[in-house]
Design goal:
Blueprint (H helix, E strand, L loop, with lengths): L1 H26 L2 E10 L5 E9 L5 E5 L6 E7 L7 E4 L4 E5 L5 E8 L3 E4 L2 E8 L3 E4 L4 E5 L7 E5 L2 E6 L2 E9 L5 H21 L6 H15 L3 H41 L5 H15 L3 H49 L1 H20 L3 H9 L14 H18 L4 H12 L3 E3 H8 L3 H13 L3 E6 L2 E6 L4
Parallel strand pairs: 1-10
Antiparallel strand pairs: 1-2, 2-7, 3-6, 4-7, 5-6, 8-9, 9-14, 10-13, 11-14, 12-13, 15-17, 16-17
Length: about 475
């Protein structure tokens, strides 16, 4: 009988030893990297485990916190789903790890929050450190016996990190003014301040420190609503100043580099340098928005100077390009009107000799004017006797003057052919003369009282003043 009892004890010992050994073996097969709990506004919680597995691990068993667990998802870090089995009585989950090195378990549970009237309580007895995110606008009324190891704020939500152990948090929704909430907000602001100083070396956060000290004073005076407002304000300013610090520092660096490049190219950068000097002064005094403004002005002034130089260079280049272009156009005109210019010059020389030898209307008409006459269809039909009289009068006047140039004589004869009057444009087209040259000839004939100039409809009408 005694032997039988000893046998039973031995079997129970072996069984229990095996169970304990399996649990110990299971625990050494994985390491919990983190546990994150997000509490929803209805009191349910989303729980997320991140695990690192030992090498060559095909299967693990893990107890999950909470009760009435649902919506379980098991994935590797590439979002590949893994197989599992779950015991709802013991809350143990067995996972086929498929030799993965890391995996994530996510599920939902209502069993972590006790809802009593307006004040709700979160409770957990955890074997591992974890972080809990409270609902939006949740206000903590009691933190229990174990204080958070880290307090942060994310938007309107509190993030509280705890070491392992029994943790409880009492909170309400939409109610402010508790000491616990003021302490959480103040601690979060201190963390934001420390982070800004650590990440942005040399940053000036005197304003943030002053507001944070006022928040702590308000806590000590039990003015919890004002303390929370000041602490939240300090956190916002801390983040805003950090952003402004980096933006102004980058712009100053950019402007300084542009000034150095401009000076290396012998570009005037005096105004930009002055703006940079002002920007550095504002930056050293912690006025980062003003420093950013001056640095931006420095960059803009350099851009304006560069555009002006490009414009001047473009104008010079355009002028240089116009020289060969004008020469080409001139050459083209000469080639195109060569047949008219050369006979005209030859005719002018011929008429000069003829007028000197025999200045008669018949000779002038035959030798000088025949080749200058426009086609018959362009001529105006005039009385031949009138035309002959004007020719004779013009010839007599030319002979009397004796000092007229050949081109002046031709103009007078042409006007006589036009019944004693012709527009300046007609004369210019007839003899292919530059506008200024023709105008000098007209003014000379006007001075010697052979023609008169009348303005008609924006054009100059040239009329003979020779009496019949």
């Amino acid at each position: 009988m005694k032997f039988f009892a000893l046998s039973i004890i031995l079997v129970l010992f072996i069984f229990l030893s095996g169970t304990i050994f399996n649990k110990v073996l299971s625990q050494v097969q994985y390491q919990v990297n983190s546990i994150f709990i997000g509490i929803l506004s209805n009191g349910d919680s989303i729980v997320q485990y991140d695990l690192r597995l030992k090498n060559n691990t095909n299967e693990i068993m893990l107890p999950l916190i909470g009760g009435n667990i649902s919506d379980i998802l098991v994935k590797n870090y590439l979002s590949k789903y893994l197989g599992y089995s779950f015991n709802s009585v013991t809350n143990d989950i067995k996972i086929n790890t498929q030799n993965e090195s890391q995996l994530r378990i996510t599920y939902q549970t209502p069993g972590l929050v006790n809802k009593q009237e307006r004040e709700w309580s979160f409770f957990i007895d955890s074997d591992f450190p974890f972080t809990v995110k409270l609902p939006n606008d949740a206000v903590v009324t009691n933190l229990g016996e174990q204080s958070p190891s880290l307090i942060r704020k994310l938007g309107g939500q509190n993030l509280l990190s705890f070491d392992k152990g029994k943790i409880s948090i009492d909170y309400v929704i939409g109610y402010a003014g508790t000491r616990e909430q003021a302490i959480i907000s103040t601690s979060s602001a201190e963390l934001d301040l420390a982070k800004a100083e650590r990440d942005h070396v040399g940053i000036n956060l005197d304003e943030v420190k002053s507001i944070l000290n006022m928040a702590k004073t308000a806590v000590n005076q039990s003015n919890f609503i004002e303390a929370e407002r000041l602490a939240n304000n300090a956190s916002d300013i801390s983040r805003r100043v950090a952003e402004s610090f980096e933006a102004s520092k980058d712009m100053i660096s950019n402007a300084t580099r542009k000034v150095e490049d401009a000076q290396a190219m012998n570009t005037d950068a005096s105004q930009a340098s002055e703006f940079i000097s002002k920007s550095n002064i504002e930056f050293s005094q912690g006025n980062y928005p003003k420093a950013l403004e001056y640095a931006t002005l420095a960059v803009n002034s350099l851009d304006v100077t560069k555009q002006e130089q490009i414009s001047q260079s473009s104008s010079s280049s355009t002028f240089l390009l116009l020289i060969p272009l004008a020469a080409s156009v001139g050459f083209f005109i000469i080639v195109k009107y060569r047949s008219k210019i050369i006979p005209h010059l030859q005719s002018t020389r011929f008429k000069k000799d003829t007028l000197n030898n025999d200045l008669t209307p018949n000779t002038l008409q035959e030798n000088n004017l025949t080749e200058k006459q426009p086609p018959m269809k362009e001529q105006i039909n005039v009385d031949s006797s009138t035309q002959s009289d004007l020719h004779r009068l013009v010839a007599d006047v030319i002979k009397q003057k004796g000092n007229l140039k050949p081109e002046e004589r031709e103009i007078l004869f042409y006007i006589s052919e036009k019944e004693g009057a012709a527009f300046e444009g007609e004369i210019r087209n007839k003899f292919i003369l530059p506008k200024t040259s023709l105008w000098r000839l007209i003014k000379r004939l006007e001075r010697v009282d052979l023609i008169e100039v009348t303005k008609i409809g924006g054009q100059n009408l040239i009329k003979l003043k020779i009496q019949k």
